[in-house]
Design goal:
heterodimer, A: 567 residues, mainly alpha, MetI-like fold, two-stranded antiparallel ribbon, 24 helices, B: 358 residues, alpha+beta, 2 domains, six-stranded mixed sheet, 8 helices
């Protein structure tokens, strides 16, 4: 790797980069995880399994565990069905308006699920939900027909916003699939139904399972929706239970210890899920990528063409348009509970968001925290991926092992680990500062960065670098002039994979915020908890606008810039 | 009765006529090739025969039975046509074993278990895949994967076997070997074959007859030798094999290479249909040009040994031509002046297009 004279040295640039990369992952990820395990299993320096069992035997922790599993399984089941159905509908039938529908099905991905949960609570809560009241009035019912504040409600709402994980995976696989695989079945005499059952579905099964496991992983450790829809009714899952314990005790050590025990269970579940995913992807990933791009066989829907189109539109109206409109309308109400008549509406709430210190701070905190995290994590992730993918140094396996670690850490776990690590125990006290959120975000999003950067680096053939070196460029010049320009799309992608979710992050921030370090997510959540529904909705509306702006305008502009700078 | 009968078949994609009024009859048991550069409409024609594309105009009969017709608004879907098909990208199902891949179409026909077993084993034996029956296709080489596709098509004992550039994804050595295997399967089972390729040597080696296509229009239908010897136009001449085109002018009943009168006249007759208002090219195969004591004068610019054959680049005036001679008769050296005699000259309008191959 290095020049000939340097070969004699034991310590070259490669080793320094390797050690630096390992250090980053150890400090940011490994130490917090170790702290969680130590706190969970050791009390006063003794191994304490009895304590762990005792905590798990308590009814509320046991129930939280059970709820988490039921919600995760339910959400996974329904997301898979909905995701596969819509992906197949858009990729393998002659449904009208495919392009527009494909774009629209990505929108639920952008919407923060806890903001939507707020909207749905406004619409469907049993006591005062607008739709419930409407239905009761229309049919003369004595009680609300739909109760969104239940296990079923939580599963339904999470499904609405998590199914794109499956949809994306499956529609990607269907699009890349070689159409002749299906055509050869057809010429063998198989009907379209048989082809779908015997050829298409088995071939995209790995993608279906991968998407489903992603949903399961996400739902298992999800804070927003269960906390908004469940807490009031006493329905807790693991993240909301941890939050409740810590919040109720004012952050006592015992509460944190219970938290770490629950967190350990989350980590074990997550690790098992990721193991399963790796196993399936390794054994089942078929080479189904098309050599020639040809139009696949599409099923003629005939009479069902327009009805199914309207099913899609209706689904999008209900899951995307209705909650978004509700948020903006509530945000414009003079007082919560009034009807949406023009005389009850005002712009004042939206203006107030920019005047109130708390909300203004929250927006500023979120913007600068997500920008700086995204930038730092993108660069660190690039360096780590470069070592893993491209460099040949001894001790790389340590990095490979540590690099997988962030994938299996749910947000709640990272928050707890950061509390334990950065509260002065190691001489650095970041508690209640923005710094602790910053390090937590880096830990939380490192996985995204490594994934995106490694994928880009694997596309860069070694011979491109070797060609540059043989032209007389140094390692560093090669990196800056050849490698970085080639993986720039991957880096930009990594930036947005971090920036956009960080902007609306709630699960981690809610455990880490201090008096002056609320983020947008925390501020919306806190306002909503305090009964300031209108203000919460107004801030949520502004958050939606910022997210939409980031997702479309900035991303589009950067993609364009990247294209023009290449040609 | 012809195995396939295509009457006035057209296909339009947007504003492009991919296939333009094609008429063709393929006889029972014939091996018939569609040859042409990419985008000429040969694959589209095959896909219309298979039923993956409907006809925009025309009719298609198989064994006298109507398969598609734009006039009668009739279209038989591909799964009902009983054809076998092999694709360029193999299209073997990676989630099934070799055996299951071959047996799949037989299961669809709801045959007896015993018969499925017999026919699958027969097809695997014919393609020498018996040992690999229980393996998954991804563990096998490209050639073996293509054999699975062949076995799958052979097993159903199809009326017509459609092959869409089946050898293009294989390396050259294997390609030649598989060529003979396909031919052997065809003679053994006697099915009709439609073979699509852009490789003229493949088409020549396999076909009883072939057609050459360009931009959706059939240029010529004939047996390989006749197409090679009597190409219908300049395009076909240039697409089949190597070719030299030399612009010429006629003066006092003698033929001269354009702007090279001082090199002397070219041997050969002026065709009876010669029209002085048109400028002509004479066309010749590089192997049909001989060095001789007399004839048009040329200079040797380059000499390349291609194993048994020596390839010359010769210059007559400002025109470069290629000449290939067996090595035993490699007489000229670079810089030397020589005289040429042309055998089998054909005359084409200079403005006609060639298949611009490099």
């Amino acid at each position: 790797m290095n020049g000939r004279p340097r070969l004699k040295k034991k310590f070259g640039v490669a080793e320094i980069v390797l050690i630096f990369s390992i250090l980053i992952l150890v400090v940011v990820v490994a130490v917090p995880v170790i702290m969680i395990f130590l706190t969970a299993f050791f009390k006063d320096g003794h191994f304490n399994l009895a304590g762990v069992i005792q905590v798990l035997k308590q009814k509320d922790t046991y129930m939280a565990l059970k709820n988490s599993l039921i919600i995760a399984l339910g959400v996974t089941f329904f997301s898979t069905i909905i995701g596969v159905f819509f992906a197949w509908l858009l990729a393998r039938t002659d449904i009208p308006g495919k392009k527009a529908l494909n774009a629209m099905f990505m929108v639920p991905f952008m919407l923060p699920s806890f903001i939507c949960a707020m909207a749905w609570k406004v619409l469907l809560s049993p006591r005062s939900g607008y739709i419930n009241k409407l239905l009761m009035g229309m049919f003369g019912l004595s009680h609300a027909p739909i109760d969104i504040m239940s296990m079923g409600g939580i599963i339904a709402i999470e499904t609405m916003y998590l199914f794109p994980f499956v949809f994306l995976q499956v529609s990607g696989a269907l699009e890349r699939m070689d159409p002749t695989l299906e055509e050869s079945a057809r010429i063998s005499g198989a009907s379209l139904g048989t082809i779908t059952r015997k050829i298409t579905l088995p071939l995209v099964m790995p993608s279906i399972v991968a998407g489903a496991l992603l949903v399961c992983l996400y739902s298992l450790a999800h804070f927003g929706v269960p906390s908004i829809l469940g807490t009031e009714k006493g329905i807790y899952n693991i993240p909301t239970k941890i939050y409740e314990r810590i919040y109720a005790s004012g952050g006592s050590y015992e509460a944190i210890r219970v938290g770490t025990i629950l967190a350990t269970i989350l980590v074990i579940c997550a690790t098992l899920i990721l193991k399963a995913q790796n196993l399936i992807l390794k054994n089942g990933r078929f080479q189904i990528i098309a050599g020639k791009s040809m139009r696949p066989v599409v099923m003629k829907l005939r009479g069902l063409r327009w009805p199914l189109f309207f099913v899609c539109v209706l689904y999008l109206l209900i899951t995307v348009v209705m909650p978004t409109v509700t948020i903006f309308l509530i945000g414009g109400l003079k007082t919560y509970g009034l009807s949406f008549a023009p005389r009850n509406m005002t712009w004042a709430n939206y203006l107030e968001i920019f005047q109130l210190k708390m909300t203004r701070n929250a927006i500023w905190n979120s913007v600068y925290l997500s920008t700086s995290t995204a930038f730092v994590t993108m660069l660190a992730g690039m360096m780590i991926s470069y070592v893993i993918v491209k460099m040949k140094v001894k001790g790389k396996f340590i990095l490979e092992f540590l690099g997988v670690l962030p994938y299996s850490l749910p947000g709640t776990v990272i928050a707890l680990g950061c509390i334990l690590t950065w509260s002065g125990r190691f001489g650095i006290n970041l508690y209640n500062t923005a710094g602790i959120i910053f390090v937590a975000y880096i830990a939380r999003y490192m996985a995204f960065s490594i994934k995106s950067n490694s994928a880009a680096l694997e596309q860069v053939s070694d011979s491109l670098e070797e060609a540059s070196r043989s032209c007389g460029a140094t390692h560093w010049q090669t990196l800056m002039n050849i490698v970085v320009p080639l993986i720039r799309p991957g880096m930009i992608n990594a930036f947005f994979l971090i920036f956009l979710p960080a902007l609306r992050e709630l699960t981690t921030s809610v455990l880490l915020y201090g008096p002056t370090t609320r983020t947008i997510g925390v501020a919306i959540y806190a306002l909503n908890e305090d009964g300031e529904t209108v203000r919460a909705a107004a801030l949520a509306g502004i958050a939606l606008i910022i997210i939409f702006f980031g997702e479309t305008v900035i991303k589009g502009a950067l993609a364009k810039f990247d294209k023009t700078s290449r040609s | 009765m012809p195995a396939l009968d295509l009457i006035n078949v057209s296909k339009i994609f947007g504003s492009v006529k991919a296939v333009d009024r094609l008429n063709l009859q393929v006889e029972q048991g014939e091996c018939f090739s569609f040859l042409g550069p990419s985008g000429c409409g040969k694959t589209t024609t095959l896909r219309m025969i298979a039923g993956f594309e409907n006809l925009d105009e025309g009719e298609l009969y198989c064994d006298g039975k109507l398969f598609s017709s734009s006039y009668k608004r009739f279209y038989l879907p591909p799964e009902k046509r009983d054809f076998g098909m092999v694709f360029q990208a193999f299209a073997v199902w990676p989630h099934m074993t070799v055996y299951d891949n071959v047996a799949f179409p037989l299961h669809l026909k709801r045959l007896q278990k015993q018969e499925i077993k017999e026919r699958t084993e027969m097809a695997l034996k014919a393609t020498s895949l018996t040992k690999e029956a229980e393996m998954f296709p991804q563990k096998l080489s490209g050639g073996q994967q293509q054999r699975i596709a062949l076995a799958r098509a052979v097993a159903i004992n199809p009326k017509v076997m459609l092959l869409d550039e089946p050898l293009s994804n294989l390396d050259p050595h294997l390609r030649e070997e598989m060529r003979f295997e396909i031919k052997e399967l065809q003679t053994r089972f006697g099915f009709t074959v439609i073979y699509v390729t852009h490789d003229q040597s493949e088409a020549m080696a396999l076909s009883d007859r072939m057609l050459v296509m360009k931009e959706g229009v059939v240029q010529q239908i004939d047996n390989p030798l006749k197409i090679y010897d009597n190409p219908a136009n300049k395009f076909v001449f240039s697409f089949i094999g190597l070719s030299d085109f030399i612009p010429v002018e006629v003066k006092d009943g003698k033929v001269f290479v354009k702007d090279a009168e001082d090199c002397g006249p070219v041997n050969g007759q002026i065709p009876p249909e010669y029209d002085p208002s048109i400028s002509y090219d004479i066309a010749c195969r590089p192997g049909e040009i001989d060095f001789s004591p007399t004839g048009v004068k040329a200079t040797v610019v380059r000499r390349t040994y291609l194993g048994d054959i020596v390839d010359y680049l010769l210059r007559i005036g400002s025109v470069d031509i290629r000449v290939q001679k067996p090595r035993r008769r490699s007489l000229a050296t670079v810089g030397e002046t020589c005289h040429l005699k042309f055998n089998r000259l054909l005359w084409y309008d200079h403005s006609e297009e060639t298949a611009s191959k490099t």
